[in-house]
């Protein structure tokens, strides 16, 4: 079996400050003064929203230099370099399949429709490393409502870009290209499911899936397809890249579950980038109270 979805993940074990607190002391004092006077609400003082994790945010440098993006390379350190200059405009996203308003949208036209918001989410890769990222984006449900799926539509399929001129990894059959992912429609509509266009308040870097990717914070990271070009509404569970490559290792659901081990390693613990000691993995990555109802009556060891 192929599956290089494993790496000891011994990165980031150093003391770095998240970008969100990269203000020098002078700026800090000046801003604090203004803030005290009620003149300015600095970003670092923004109250956490109801969707935000209050975990320490993983430094920008780690989030953008330790990536899984196999279309560029199967190691985690090259995508940052190989995706430099990745062309993200013009960019279109095709919404089609079982919906009332199929259409190929220009990305900028889409972005104008939906206000962007920041969400701080825990992120857990199936390889047992994790991070905490302030993403920018909008609920995927906005896009889905725009397409207006028919009652017959039960799943969403994401197709991501495959441009051999820009993506050297495509010359290797690491996965069945283009990379595809999918969700059940109710999972895709869940308020936590985010269409992501940026991180740390900046446009999404190529290596993180520019210009548009999805993040489903209670699922393993590979469910979050990068550089999406098509969203299709379908009746039956779509074939997806990792599930096709190794169905017993990477389930279609892939909800984070510390009690369901990967056949080759335990999922009970994880290494948070930047931390020395492993921590316990949380059921549904800590989002259990918000998402468990989606899976009522399902055997989570069978539907993994
Ligand atoms: N198109 C595409 N999307 C992808 C991948 C990929 O190789 N190609 N890797 C997945 C995996 S395994 C993970 S863990 C996350 C990594 O996202 P990050 O690099 O922003 O941390 O992207 C997911 N989305
Ligand atoms: Mo992953």
Question: Radius of gyration over alpha carbons?
Answer: 19 Å
**Gap between N and C termini, in Å?**
19 Å
CATH evolutionary superfamily: Oxidoreductase, molybdopterin-binding domain
Structural class: alpha+beta
Q: Using DSSP, what is the number of strands? A: 12
Q: Which range does the strand content fall in?
A: 15-25%
* CATH architectural category: Alpha-Beta Complex
Biggest sheet, in brief? Answer: 7 strands, mixed
Number of domains: 1
Unreliably modeled segments: 1-45
**Order of helices and strands, N to C?**
HHHEEHEEHEEHEEEEHEEH
CATH topology: Sulfite Oxidase, Chain A, domain 2
Quaternary assembly: single chain
The CATH class is Alpha Beta
Rounded average pLDDT: 89
Helix content: 10-25%
Cofactors, ions, other ligands: the ligand Nc1nc2c(c(=O)[nH]1)N[C@H]1C(S)=C(S)[C@@H](COP(=O)(O)O)O[C@H]1N2, molybdenum atom
């Amino acid at each position: 079996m192929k599956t290089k979805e494993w790496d000891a993940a011994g990165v980031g074990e150093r003391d770095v400050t998240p970008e969100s607190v990269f203000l020098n002391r002078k700026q800090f004092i000046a801003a604090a003064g203004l803030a005290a006077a009620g003149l300015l609400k600095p970003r670092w003082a923004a109250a956490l929203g109801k969707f935000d994790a209050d975990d320490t945010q993983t430094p920008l440098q780690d989030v953008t230099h330790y990536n899984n993006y196999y279309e560029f390379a199967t190691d985690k350190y090259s995508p940052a370099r190989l995706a430099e200059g990745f062309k993200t405009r013009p960019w279109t996203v095709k919404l089609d399949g079982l919906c009332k308003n199929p259409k190929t949208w220009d990305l900028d036209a889409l972005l104008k429709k939906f206000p962007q918001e920041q969400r701080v989410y825990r992120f857990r890769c199936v390889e047992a490393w994790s991070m905490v990222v302030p993403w920018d984006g909008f609920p995927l449900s906005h896009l889905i409502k725009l397409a207006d799926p028919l009652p017959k539509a039960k799943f969403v399929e994401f197709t991501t870009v495959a441009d051999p001129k820009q993506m050297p990894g495509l010359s290797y059959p690491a996965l069945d290209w283009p990379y595809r992912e999918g969700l059940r429609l109710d999972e895709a509509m869940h308020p936590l499911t985010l269409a992501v266009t940026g991180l740390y308040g900046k446009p999404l870097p190529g290596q993180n899936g520019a210009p548009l990717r999805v993040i489903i914070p209670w699922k393993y990271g590979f469910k979050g397809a990068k550089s999406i070009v098509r969203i299709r509404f379908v009746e039956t569970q779509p074939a997806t890249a990792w599930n096709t490559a190794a169905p017993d290792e990477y389930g279609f659901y892939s909800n984070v579950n510390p009690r369901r081990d990967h056949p080759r390693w335990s999922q009970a613990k994880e290494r948070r980038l930047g931390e020395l000691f492993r921590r316990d993995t949380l059921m549904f990555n800590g989002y259990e109270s918000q998402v468990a109802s989606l899976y009522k009556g399902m055997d989570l060891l069978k539907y993994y």
